[in-house]
Amino acid sequence: MPTWKAVKRVKRNFWNLYKAQLSMMLWAGKKNPKNKKRVKARSASGTIVAWVIAGVLIALYEYIFMSMLYVEENTAVFPPLVAMFAMFLTLLTSVSYAKALLFEAKDHDMLFALPIPGRTIVAAKLLTMYTLDSILNIVMLVPCAIFYGIFERPHISFYIYYFILMLFVSLIPILIASVISAVMSIIASHFRHAQFVTVILYVIFLCGVMGFSMTVGSSAGGNEDVLVGAMFEGMLSGLSSIYPPLAWFKEATMEGSLSSALLFVGISLLAFSIVALVFGKFYGKIHEMFRPRAIRRKYKSSEKSSGIMLALMKKDMKRLFSSATIFMNQLIGLLMLVVFAVMFSIQNFGAEGEEVAELFSIMFPFIFAMAAAMVNDTSTSISLEGKTFPLLKSLPVLPKEILRSKLYLHMAFCAPVILVCGIAVSIVNGLPIIGAIATVVIPLCYAYSAGVVGLLINLKKYKFDWTSEVTIAKNNLPMVLTMLGGMVLSIAPMVIALGLYFAGLPLAAILGGCTALAVIFAVVMTLLMNALGEKWFLKIEY
Known about the structure:
Number of helices: 21
Radius of gyration: 24 Å
Order of helices and strands: HHHHHHHHHHHHHHHHHHHHH
Number of domains: 2
Largest sheet: none
Shape: globular
Structural class: mainly alpha
Number of strands: 0
Helix content: over 70%
């Protein structure tokens, strides 16, 4: 039997380790020992501002969606639907960074040398993951409760169950993601190019999850006249049969079921305990599985001298592909774009008639633009230099060449995907010429502009002393601002363009104007980069 002192010591070790891990994730930033407090305060204020902006934008989207469901008289689907999106988002993001935080963190050897049980270390790391994901979940779920309360004025039991269960929404998805990430990493460790295989497995997983969810949604809305609310209600029903916690959440919040609430909380805590115990018991062995078995390949110096731009792009590309965490978080927009293209091609909206084809000629460019703007590799490209930034800065290369190489790599990823998907969707759906041009040009301009904006913000808000890539992937102001800004600047113009179309304005005038504005915005971003990029780069101090 463990003594009270032993239990107290374990609790103290756990909380100290948890606070250290969380502090490392939240406050890692610019190295400046002389002004440590001021730097930490600025970092904290920047993070808070980013989450406030994110909260406002998410609240705006939720209000629009809630208003639409209110018109359809199907608001009961709204709270569980938002919870479903929160669970889905947690699963996708956690799969990509669980390996880096749990098993391949740079502090593993130091922690393993301490007189702390493995299960305590794993539990602290899992709780750190839970805290980071819960921030986003709270930002998504709190506005949902507020809007549902304004529109429907539910019983007090709704708020009690909702705000309690909200704290447990991310637990099970995090644990599932940790197990999936571990399995993928063990499989990849048997191959020569383990990191590349890991990236491929993550891409397959992400495409599979997205494709499955869209299949459920399309089957639920198979009838062309079905309302949006009814379609999502069918999606919830289908996913609830596969993932019971979603059904328990719905029954507890919408029907006041105490048994469902207890099941949701109990299973979440039980799953957390089991995963912490199992991973903790075999923590050292699992970590050894993820280590390279040997030098996987021998590097031979090439006698050929590549151009400066190509060499810089190769360096950044190797860095991007060396980490599945960074790769998945930064290029998820391209995967979404491909999934959208496949879905729109299978649906073939052009077969419904010329009027429907014109309608989707307006929607496709901005839907693709939203996905393209979510490609945020430039928003972390400066921070990812880490301790090697002084070396990069000392190279006999102009700063503008370094910045251009990062933008060129960004467009090298985006442009081929946008061109192929845009042309394919235009041909399959029989879009008019102006619609086909807009479906390609507008997303290209958005992708380029997002790359410039992300790079400029990262030049002002950078982090170099990170110890885990999750710090860059999850707690990153430039990435949040770039992604949310791209979403707003794609959805808002689409709504305005649709309004002008229904008001009777010619399609050519609408799409021509939108395309021209997108090109002008890209030109303005180029001028801004030329004016500020090099200056801000030279001001960075390490």
